[in-house]
Design goal:
Length: about 140
């Protein structure tokens, strides 16, 4: 079985009971199809990068699980017909090799997720230009 990460972006006006039911239904579906839940992490409400269905915020939830590949198809099918789900994304996680831990390059556990508190809020409103952009159009930067 492979390890996957499912990110759900749910409508911010959905009741907490309905959000819990959606997450519970996804985790039960994974379990019944022979998968195993590793971690469920609610990230809470966050501002979206762009409006989706006139919503500017979404309620984020991450589910890390191990399951066979056919489980992904069934989960996505049920999420596509759920009205409260604005967006979802399933990503296969690569497991770090054992050699990385022995070299001391990466001592992180492969089940770790970034928490909502870890993200800095250092947006000072200034626009940053990537160096690759400055090489492409050097006359535009003054």
């Amino acid at each position: 079985m492979r390890r996957y990460e499912l990110m759900l972006v749910l409508r911010p006006d959905a009741p907490d009971e309905r959000i819990a039911a959606i997450v519970d239904r996804a985790t039960r579906q994974i379990s019944t199809d022979g998968g195993q839940i590793v971690k469920v992490a609610p990230w809470g409400r966050r501002r979206l990068a762009y409006p989706i269905e006139r919503y500017r915020e979404g309620s984020y939830h991450i589910i890390v699980f191990e399951a066979p590949a056919n489980t992904i198809i069934e989960i996505e099918r049920s999420l596509l017909i759920t009205e409260e789900v604005l967006r979802h994304l399933v990503i296969r996680q690569e497991r770090p090799s054992k050699a990385r831990g022995e070299d001391g390059l990466d001592g992180a556990d492969d089940g770790d997720l970034p928490s909502a508190e870890d993200e800095p809020d250092d947006d000072d409103g200034t626009e940053r230009i990537d160096e690759s952009e400055s090489e492409a159009a050097p006359a535009a930067i003054d």
